[in-house]
Specification:
The chain has 235 residues and is of the alpha/beta class. It has a domain of 154 residues: 3-Layer(aba) Sandwich (Molybdenum Cofactor Biosythetic Enzyme, Chain A). Helices cover 49% and strands 16% of the residues. A six-stranded mixed beta sheet has the order 2-1-3-6-5-4, with helices on both faces. The chain has a two-stranded antiparallel ribbon with strand order 7-8. α2 packs across α6. It is globular. This is Molybdenum cofactor synthesis protein.
Length: 235
């Protein structure tokens, strides 16, 4: 009698559920967020924009890996943002402040050279959102965003309401997807080197297996002479 090839519905359902749960876990894995506040008139203790960003990302299930405050000095901003990007526990970087047209505001000028790729539509979308919320005052809000070293970077206004809108309307809904897209893949050179190493290991195993087989058949590895035992003597 032929055995049935139909799959067990319970087993299939269980497999589907497991795959779904696995996918769900991947989509709920928290990102590490680095928040940098840039202002002369604020500190970490008196920073409504930073506090709002911290709360919004935390409520969305992400982890704020660090928060920093720095004055709007070009070199200081560039240095601290660069250090945050280099942190292993940070997947996304968000700055707040130093983006207006005031002479002392240098965030955009400091961060832009660090970006490998620009997210051009971010500023356009955020300007539209800010215009709907605040009218023509949005004209003075300069923003930028991009990707560097596999990490999305966003530069937001220092206004708490504007920063919160940027986070809730644009960044949080897309940050996990952007982080996945920006994450560096294994380079072709690394893959080739790994394949070469595996090939060498396989060749070594084949050689050892051949030597073991010749020894088992009474032949010394590397020679054609048989090892014969006659009356206890080896000739």
């Amino acid at each position: 009698m032929n055995e049935s090839t139909e799959s067990d519905p319970d087993t299939a359902a269980g497999s589907t559920e497991t795959a779904t749960e696995s996918s769900s876990r991947e989509h709920t894995t928290p990102l590490g967020v680095g928040i940098v506040t840039i202002a002369d008139d604020r500190t970490l203790e008196s920073d409504p924009a930073g506090e709002d960003l911290n709360d919004e990302f935390t409520q969305a299930g992400h982890e704020v890996a660090m928060r920093e405050h720095v004055s709007p000095d070009h070199d200081k901003v560039q240095s601290i943002v660069s250090r945050v990007i280099d942190r292993d526990d940070v997947d996304i970087v968000v700055t707040a402040g130093g983006t207006s047209v005031e002479p002392s505001d240098r965030t955009i000028e400091a961060v832009t050279p660090l970006l490998e790729k620009r997210l051009e539509t971010f500023s356009e979308l955020l300007t539209t959102i800010l215009y709907e919320a605040n009218g023509s005052r949005a004209l003075a809000a300069r923003t930028t965003a991009g990707v560097t070293d596999g990490r999305p970077v966003f530069c937001l206004p220092g206004n708490a309401d504007a920063a919160r809108l940027a986070a809730t309307e644009l960044i949080i809904p897309e940050c996990r997807h952007l982080a996945e897209l920006a994450r560096p893949a294994e380079s072709a050179d690394d893959s080739t080197a790994a394949e070469g190493a595996n090939g060498s290991d396989n060749e070594g195993e084949d050689t050892r297996e051949g030597e073991d087989e010749r020894t088992a058949n009474g032949k010394h590895p590397g020679t054609d002479e048989s090892i014969q035992e006659i009356d206890g003597d080896v000739q």
